[in-house]
Write a structure and sequence with these properties.
Blueprint lengths: L1 E6 L3 H12 L4 E7 L2 H11 L3 E4 L8 H11 L5 E5 L4 H10 L3 E4 L4 H12 L7 H15 L9 H11 L4 H8 L3 H15 L4 H10 L6
Parallel strand pairs: 1-2, 1-3, 3-4, 4-5
Helix pairs in contact: 2-3, 3-4, 7-9, 7-10, 8-9, 9-10
Protein name: DNA-binding response regulator
Pfam families: GerE, Response_reg
GO cellular component, one term: cytoplasm
Length: about 210
């Protein structure tokens, strides 16, 4: 039997979900909580296999409850069941330790199946949540051009911003003029600019150098 803890501030929601899950041959509802504070207490007391967690509740919301439960019990498997799909709810809930994210508009059968899959270590996410996470991952993996520069190339870009010539840069860094030219060429290539002036403008626009 998969032991489940229900957490929702609406009694009618708890009654409906509890009745449906209890009718399943492999699921047992071992407790119900009307807010996050009670949820933390019952989670540590019963150690359920899966917790169905509402987000917006009085006393303590679901995000903080999830954070506290996973902090005290890292093995906890929590399914967020909410009406909200905005970024202010999705990301904090997942970062707090929620395993899966479902909507209250989901069919009862889908929630029961999510309980089973989460119990077996899978993560069940609403399609919209999956899309949000993929988009966020892509944003995080996109690197700005100057982030590709080596420490030496960044140093040379800073000196270029000071208006120093290649020879002056070579003298200051105690390297050969030919080496400076190679570094400058690499900087221009990585920043995808045509000349030193454009490179300096890029560095200024990115806040790397001051006017």
């Amino acid at each position: 039997m998969i032991k489940v803890l229900l957490v929702d501030d609406h009694e009618m929601v708890r009654i409906g979900v509890s009745a449906y899950l209890s009718a399943q041959p492999d699921i047992e509802v071992v407790g119900e909580a009307e807010n996050g504070k009670v949820a933390v207490e019952l989670a540590l007391e019963h150690r359920p296999d899966v917790i169905l967690m509402d987000l917006v509740m009085d006393v303590m919301d679901g995000i903080e409850a999830t954070r506290q439960i996973t902090s005290l019990w890292p093995e906890a498997r929590i399914i967020v069941v909410t009406s909200f799909l905005d970024d202010e709810k999705v990301y904090p809930a997942l970062e707090a330790g929620a395993t899966s994210y479902m909507l209250k508009t989901s069919k009862a059968g889908d929630i029961a199946q999510a309980v089973r899959e989460t119990h077996h270590g899978k993560s069940v996410l609403e399609p919209e949540v999956t899309g949000k996470m993929m988009s966020r991952m892509r944003q995080k993996t996109v690197r700005l051009p100057h982030e590709e520069l080596t420490a030496r190339e960044m140093e040379i870009l800073m000196l270029m911003g000071q208006g120093k010539t290649n020879q002056e840069i070579a003298d200051e860094l105690f390297i050969a003029l030919k080496t400076v030219k190679v570094h400058v060429s690499s900087v221009l290539s990585k920043l995808d600019v045509q000349d030193r002036t454009q490179a300096v403008i890029y560095a200024f626009n990115q806040g790397l150098i001051k006017a």
